[in-house]
Amino acid sequence: MLESNQTPSTNHHTCDSVHPFAENPPHYLITHNPNTAQMDKLYRLRAEVFCRELAWVGSPEDESEYDKFDNTSTHLGLFIHGQATGYLRVHHHNTPWMINTIFSGPLLDSKPTTQLANSCEVSRLLIKSTHRGKTKVSNHPPLNLLLSHLQDYCRSRDIRYVYMVVTPATRVVFARIGFKSTPLSKPVKMEDGCYAMAAVLDFGQVEALIPSKDTLCS
């Protein structure tokens, strides 16, 4: 559920592809083309959150968390002082979607949504537990930084609709920061005991999350 090569700056750096961190890493960095070392950190962070904290998938002993959808996804990673702090992945219209496969039966009555060229699915959204709540990076909450990069990423590729499977609580959090979504299903109790629902976010109806002077490069 819920890519340019430049020298990292001292405050923040967001771009399409990035080099491994130097001895003095930037304050924060967001990339949608993580290298192998960065991807390893993100898989480990996913295990920390989804296998141990939430216990949604895998087992507490898992050091990394990944699945069959990873090979066809674009991975967005947020790093603060070189440490993996936030993550989500994008499933483009021509790749398998979780909402149309493993969640199709319980949430959509096995009636998949149409995967149009101007749409995508987002999954595995997370922020490291130590950086939730009141934590801010360059005056912005980590979640806002991650979602702002997603917003810029989608707009630069003419992606308007973002489908997702979220908990009702996550949908409320999104709405509070201006990312209001339309429900596609009622909340359903899953096998792990967590309630989940399908929803779609229309970026055509959402203002820029971070002012233009602070926007992330696409």
Automatic annotation (TrEMBL):
* PROSITE patterns with a match to the protein in the record: AUTOINDUCER_SYNTH_2
Keyword S-adenosyl-L-methionine included in the entry's annotation: yes
Q: Name one GO biological process term.
A: signal transduction
Stored Pfam families? Autoind_synth
Name of the top EC class for this enzyme: transferase
**Family, per entry:** Belongs to the autoinducer synthase family.
Any idea which GO molecular function terms this record carries? N-acyl homoserine lactone synthase activity
Q: Which domain of life is it from?
A: Bacteria
**Sorted UniProt keywords:** Autoinducer synthesis, Quorum sensing, S-adenosyl-L-methionine, Transferase
**The enzyme's E.C. designation:** 2.3.1.184
InterPro entries for this protein: Acyl_CoA_acyltransferase, Autoind_synthase
The identity of this protein, by name, is Acyl-homoserine-lactone synthase
Q: Which reaction does it catalyse?
A: a fatty acyl-[ACP] + S-adenosyl-L-methionine = an N-acyl-L-homoserine lactone + S-methyl-5'-thioadenosine + holo-[ACP] + H(+)
